[in-house]
TrEMBL record:
One of its GO terms (biological process) is regulation of mRNA processing. It holds the Pfam family Pkinase. GO terms for cellular component: cytoplasm; nucleus. The keyword ATP-binding applies. It comes from Fusarium napiforme. Keywords: ATP-binding, Kinase, Nucleotide-binding, Serine/threonine-protein kinase, Transferase. It comes from the Eukaryota. This is non-specific serine/threonine protein kinase. The keyword Electron transport does not apply.
Amino acid sequence: MSPSRSTCILPDCTENFPYSFEISGPDGRHKVLVMQPAQMSLRDLKQVFRPDGGFDENFVRGAIHELLKALDFIHEEAQLVHTGNLLLGLDDDSQLEPLVDMELKSPVSRKKVAENRTIYLSRLMRPKPGPMLLSDFGEARTGSGPFAGDIMPIQYRAPEVIMCIAWNRPVDIWSVGLTAWDLLGPNRLFTAKDEDGDMYDAAHLAELIATLGPPPQEFLQRNVERAADFWNEQGKWLGLAPIPKNRSLEELETRLKDSTGFVAFLRRVLTWMPEDRPTAKELLQDPWLTGENRST
């Protein structure tokens, strides 16, 4: 992705947006940037239109390829860690015309919540093919890092985030793997829940152990105090949550006729050690993405 095609994301670029305005709130005035219209997030797209299954492997391959190009740009050029969302964009604003016509004929529900503020119900539009857009930079971190603190929805947190270890760009690579899994099928790879449906960190870590194997001792040494909540000094799991059985990637991936390339891709990005994950640029050359291991 070249700078000329990228979304302007740095503070001194705000004047280049086609439209912006300010709004007053309890904490002062805030600048609002109006972005180009898009359709919906890929996860929403799957939930609405593919609730019982995922997308075609070639579609997922293309989406991940576009995501990695965007991540390569923001990691290397903009010095950002994203942790955000992926939207389906528009090739042509004329795709919005039916939506405008429907709004004129039958306006959506709305609610006035303040003297100068009204909220509106979203109107669903049937998506069409379009470019992938990296969005939701509200939680992005700027600079070279490392960074600290909770980020990402619980089920999508990388091991270093769960373990309160400083994190950096590799958390985005972890997200790439989980995004690919999500788009391909109906269920999340990790739920962070035990067999009774209770969500907590020990249950999440137990799932990781079942799928990735036990963490290296070097990883646990990066936050000994936190590790002591779940493992003994020899690195043995304390059993705060049961480790699920039959949960390797090979056992879980049943959607593809030949899952070898896809599973190999996941094993590259879903690692305990952040530094073991490839960069976005390196992943763009992965055999699963380049088509060297295409399933039939």
